Amino acid sequence: FLYSAYYTIDVLNLLAALEHFEERPGQLNLDLENLFMWGRSLGGDVTARVLACTDRVSAASIWVPATTSLWDQAHHYHYDSPDYADGLAMETLLVEVQTYNKVHGTRLVTSDLVPSNFLDQVSSPVLVQVSERDRGVRSAWGIQFHFELLEHGIESDLRVHPGEDHVFRGDVYEQAVQADLEFFRRHLKSAGDGRP
């Protein structure tokens, strides 16, 4: 359950490394004014956390995101999900948090890891895309996150796709990719030469 926090640190390190290339023109042809981020499932949770930590991301798209409390996730995987009902999820989360605190000498609590608790620090627009009846990650988590973004004055679009797949396939996949491209194009910052 704590993996998303570690992955968030990895992405923030990557964004910081990109600044190195900003200081050395010609090494890579990067447009650091137009950095876009995409995350799916756990990656949607990671993307939401990154947005709370930096304003370097111009816009983000999150597909079927697990953007809810870790306890909600553990409860879902412990009791509700036919794919994960092994009876250990709640206990696993508690042990992970206790172990993390012991190893790192911290007093981390699970609410420290809920993206919606830090929306006052988010400024990037977000496109949220969910499956209507997703069985892997509850569609309600992404829908709720979308409305929490709006509640905090953050631009957010929502697409609810038909079906119950956790993975977009066929026409739904094509529609989701097109929605991302349109959303990202809408948030391109001018290159200063009259073209986006």
Fold blueprint:
Layout: H1 3-22, E1 36-40, H2 42-53, E2 59-63, H3 70-80, H4 89-104, E3 126-131, H5 139-151, E4 156-161, H6 170-186
Parallel strand pairs: 1-2, 2-3, 3-4
Helix pairs in contact: 1-2, 3-4
Short account of what is shown:
With 196 residues, the protein is α/β, with parallel strands linked by helices. It is built from 6 helices and 4 strands.
Mean pLDDT: 86
Largest beta sheet, briefly? 4 strands, parallel
* H-E string: HEHEHHEHEH
- Rounded to the nearest angstrom, the radius of gyration is 18 Å
Shape: globular
Helical stretch count? 6
End-to-end separation: 39 Å
How many β-strand runs? 4
Q: Main traits of this protein?
A:
globular; 196 residues; alpha/beta; four-stranded parallel beta sheet
Can you describe what's shown?
This protein is of the alpha/beta class. The protein is 45% helix and 11% strand. The chain contains six helices and four strands, in the order αβαβααβαβα. A four-stranded parallel sheet has the order 1-2-3-4, sandwiched between helices. The longest helix has 20 residues, at 3-22. The protein is globular, with a radius of gyration of 18 Å. The mean pLDDT is 86.
